[in-house]
Amino acid sequence: MQATYLKDYLPPAYRVTHTELTFDLDPTATRVKARLHLERHPEREAGLPLVLDGEGLTLKQVAIDGQPLEADEFEADAHSLTIARVPERFRLDTEVEIAPDTNTALEGLYRSNGMYCTQCEPEGFRRITFYPDRPDVMATFSTTVIGDRESLPVLLSNGNPVEQGELPDQRHFVTWEDPHPKPSYLFALVAGSLEKVEDHFTTQSGREVLLQIWVEPENLDKTDHAMASLKRAMRWDEETYGREYDLDRFMIVAVNDFNMGAMENKGLNIFNSAAVLTHPQTATDAAFQRVEGIVAHEYFHNWSGNRVTCRDWFQLSLKEGFTVFRDQTFSADVNSAPVKRIEDVSFFRTAQFAEDAGPTAHPVRPDHYIEISNFYTLTIYEKGAEVVRMLRHLLGWEDFRRGSDLYFARFDGQAVRIEDFVACMAEVSGLDLDQFMRWYAQAGTPEIDAHGEYDYATGEYHLRLSQRTPATPGQSEKLPLHVPIRLGLVGTKSGHDLTLKLADAAGGSETLGKDAVIHLREAEQTFVFQDVEEAPVPSLLRGFSAPVKLRYPYSREELAFLLTHDSDGFNRWDAGQRLTMLALDDLIAAHRNGVEKVMDVRLVEAYRSLLDEPGDDQAVLAEMLTLPSEAYIAEQQPVVDVDAIHAAREFVRQSLAWQLRDAFLAVYRDNQNDEPYAPTPEQIGRRKLKNVALAYLMSIADDEAIGLTQAQFKNSGNMTDVRAALTLLAHSDRSDLAEPALKAFGEQWAHDPLVMDQWFTIQVTRPQPDVIERVRFLMEHPAFSLKNPNKVRALIGAFAQNRVNFHRLDGQGYKLLADVVIELNRLNPEIAARIITPLTRWQRFDEERQVLMKAELERIRGEKLSPNVYEMVERALA
Ligand code: B3K
Ligand code: ZN
């Protein structure tokens, strides 16, 4: 299969200035007429053939300037339509037929629950009509949708409705016009029997915008939170980035079958129903927060992505990294900022670090791909956001904002590259960002070793930093990066941040304040701080100011000190994580060596002091009391021993529970709340803390803990508490607790697909060894379908995160995943290529498991593979 290379980029031979589409909808034979107004690209030579992308289309007609073409004047194959001779400027008419009903890949035009919808990014538009399907071709669109009046009363597309009317045979039509030039990947169409919730937003310049959320009738009561989130996001983007919405209406549609979370189509965002619908009784706090973040993310794309888009798909992080950074900051601003950062970083260090250390590691800007859909990754999105965050650290907010303004002003309506964005940041700040650009080109997580020394005689503190980035596939040599390190020096006597006076090369010094960013640029560099009045403990990489692994030989005493004294909330949490990791390391070693496990008393004391002084941010405390996940612990081990990790972590959990039982009980009781449910940071924090405490108590599972959990399961009015309790019952060793609760819940919510997803996940994440059999059994459940990506994620994806069971030594977990990948490879290659990921990480495990995992990858390789799965398997086995 052919790879595409960034170095081969050429502008398109012809560009489209205006696109007129007419859809005559039919489940098995939808007719699509396209009229494209084309002209030669000024940078390309005259006389080139016109080559349009087209995938799985049945061509009915083709004409240039009204003249139908003869069969020998064009060539249509499985992937393209080629016309050898075309004028400099012309009108192309085509008509094709497509079959939405048989489209299980969910790219292009397909049906979900009877409703028609589209997904075009990155290359789905070519499954709708012949087109130069690439982001640097931007045209205005006029779209007419024709459908049955009775079954398809609602007909939507991008922009504004300009005409509608009745047609013979009980059909009707609506014509939409989008005045903003856009690439084909932002095209959208929806048709169905939908109902809407409406609201309004007045922009900062006083324009009225109509806001609509379209859902199936039974979901009308689940849209309030998405609508409120949308309005908050619109206001925030005006206030924070000066970005105003630019059409008269903004629509969101919820669909059940969707590959991703959502899609930012111009003026018509299409959402996975899981990313938009919420109700206190059916959605957890985490789901409420996810919806808020995704609604904001898609809205923010209107500028970072739509008004200014990507020249080619190698630049994907230009829009995704920046937009994730924007949505992270938004969520931090409207919720608890330290908690948001802790959540994002713990996810990042677990999942993105693993990607960057594995066989599919790639730079934030890749230089080649076989299937671009495989590159909607944590590296492009999350690491891309961290790279933008570093720019913010390096420039400071004011210059960063000026750079952002310049970027939007200079490139409005254009398709550009990552260096165009960075150049704006360099221009406004005067900073040299050439070295910084390596962050986009080099894959792998940089490792930084830090050593500090305090000289009592001179009052100098020397901080020696060295950096190195490990080799990744295709990149053996790495150059030093420009790394912003935010830090403080915490006085061991005072417990306060000391003033940072940094010596410079010229023999002078610069006073930076008490919390500052230093620039590491060399492979090895020593920073000298002067007039440090007492011995400090360094607090490094505050707020995780760079996506690196930072090692510092902290003693347990120093970590306990930072845990209570660091002024940076994030680093306080991180000190606790490091302290817990030291204890876990010892216990993992003890487990492996068959030695009795002994709990570290310093850890118990550290937790005790946290519980004794709960502070006023319950959510932060909940995070501090949460043990690192098995996946995160695994990331820290040279060879992953799933059983030792599980045993060590359980041992810590139970030891803490036994020794601090009364304190956990008090926290549980103190954080009960009778107020009506609201997804406020304050309430969310309380629920989180209460449920963390309950989880500790249930690790002992005495009568009192069981009683509290059962009462919470039965009596709570919100899904956060019900799900927390159900998970504890279902994951306990007692089937007399687990089975009745699961049964009751399954019956109560059989009608609600999003709740059934949670029911599936809870069952397949149990630590008990019968889980693989349960997954196979649940795959036959009427609520499960391999054709629905949410179900696949809830059952199969969640199971593959169940480390002790997925990695069972009889290889049945691997076999199950491979069976599903093989089936999905035919139905939905994009999802198949995503869920295969855990198998591709075989190098991290012991010999015995490596053999089993590779055997399953080989079995998959033996199939007739989609480009998506082919690329993943080849990378994994390379
Ligand atoms: N831009 C979309 C990605 C869709 C790609 C699907 N293959 C979602 C987002 O990042 O907002
Ligand atoms: Zn996005």
Automatic annotation (TrEMBL):
Q: Does the keyword Hydrolase apply?
A: yes
- Looking at the record, the residues that make up the Peptidase M1 membrane alanine aminopeptidase domain are 226-439
Record-linked InterPro entries: Aminopeptidase_N-like_N, Aminopeptidase_N-like_N_sf, PepN_Ig-like_sf, Peptidase_M1, Peptidase_M1_dom, Peptidase_M1_pepN, Peptidase_M1_pepN_C, Peptidase_M1_pepN_C_sf
Q: Could you list the residue ranges that cross the membrane?
A: none
**What SUPFAM superfamilies does the annotation carry?**
Leukotriene A4 hydrolase N-terminal domain (SSF63737), Metalloproteases ('zincins'), catalytic domain (SSF55486)
The cofactors named for this UniProt entry are: Zn(2+)
Q: What is this protein called?
A: Aminopeptidase N
Q: Where is the Peptidase M1 alanyl aminopeptidase C-terminal domain?
A: 557-878
The reaction(s) annotated as catalysed by this protein in its Swiss-Prot or TrEMBL entry are: Release of an N-terminal amino acid, Xaa-|-Yaa- from a peptide, amide or arylamide. Xaa is preferably Ala, but may be most amino acids including Pro (slow action). When a terminal hydrophobic residue is followed by a prolyl residue, the two may be released as an intact Xaa-Pro dipeptide
- Keywords for this entry? Aminopeptidase, Hydrolase, Metal-binding, Metalloprotease, Protease, Zinc
The yes or no answer to whether the keyword Protease is present is yes
What are this entry's molecular-function GO terms?
Answer: aminopeptidase activity
Domain Peptidase M1 alanyl aminopeptidase Ig-like fold: from-to ranges? 444-552
> What CDD domains does the record tag this protein with?
M1_APN (cd09600)
> In which family does this protein belong, per the annotation?
Belongs to the peptidase M1 family.
Look up the EC number in the record and give it. Answer: 3.4.11.2
What class does this enzyme belong to in the EC scheme? Answer: hydrolase
Among Pfam families, the record links this protein to: DUF3458, DUF3458_C, Peptidase_M1, Peptidase_M1_N
